[in-house]
Amino acid sequence: MPNVEEERIQGFLLGFVDFLYAVLFGVILQQVFTDVLLAEGLQRLEKLVRILLVVGVFYFLLGDWIQGRLLTLRNPYRSYRRFFVEVAIAFAGYGAAIEALRADISFVLYVTFVMSLGSYWSYSTLFEITDEQDRRELRTVMVVQPLTAFVGLSVWLLWYRFVGFPISLGGMIVLYIVGFLYDLSYELFAPSREGLAGGPGVPFLSRERVNNLRSMLRISS
Amino acid sequence: MDFSAIPDGPLVAVILVVINVLLLSVGLREWHKWRKQQRT
Q1: Is the ipTM of this complex over 0.85?
Q2: SS3 of residue B33 by DSSP
Q3: Shortest Cα distance from B14 to chain A (angstroms)?
Q4: What is the pLDDT of residues A63-88, one digit of tens each?
Q5: Which residues of B touch A140 (CB under 8 A)?
Q6: Structural domain spans, chain A
Q7: pTM of the model
Q8: Which of A32, A99, B5, B40 has the most crowded Cβ, counting Cβ within 10 A?
Q9: Residues 6+ apart with CB under 8 A from A201
Q10: How far is A212 from chain B (nearest CA, A)?
């Protein structure tokens, strides 16, 4: 009964990744309280910027995890490669969260690392694919994520050159806009499925609006 | 520039640029292949 055994292995590998992410999110939440909310010597505005940065990173990691989990559900592991990449993504995600808590722009470097690993994960999934409909999404990830990584690296370098430490309210808004455009480009080039299987989608934009925007920009659906 | 948070930041950035150039070239090749399949 090799299939039953494969399914069990699949189950404990996914269980480990889920557990790792759960611990990661728990630690991030705990640090938000100890390092920001209850910290002495931080102005209210500084606290607000740090919390919103962590919320942004949290949302990005959560979206990344949900999308990866949905793709794995439809295209199970056939080797251990994707599993180890997912563990590495969790490590890099933790780095992004702790730097965001310090309002240090270095968190962008960790996000860039997550994107590079995500692109490699998609490339690996293309060889293990069982659901044909996912090919387009994986190819989109392979293009959109390295491009966003270049934007992130440029933002990081320009920040160090012209702004410095720490991130201000204006800087945080710019980073939110970059994040929103990343989500939008992903959705424009890889139309999602209906319902929960389609993932969280673009925040504040319905699927109909994204569809209208796609036809306006003449992107095939 | 102060790279105190990640002292090797510039080196890490260069490595990430190289990795992403490679990933992007593979991604574009796959995308191009898919578009070609769509047309035929």
Answers
A1: no
A2: helix
A3: 9
A4: 989 999 999 999 999 999 999 999 99
A5: 31
A6: 2-216
A7: 0.87
A8: A99
A9: A183, A187, A192, A207, A210
A10: 22
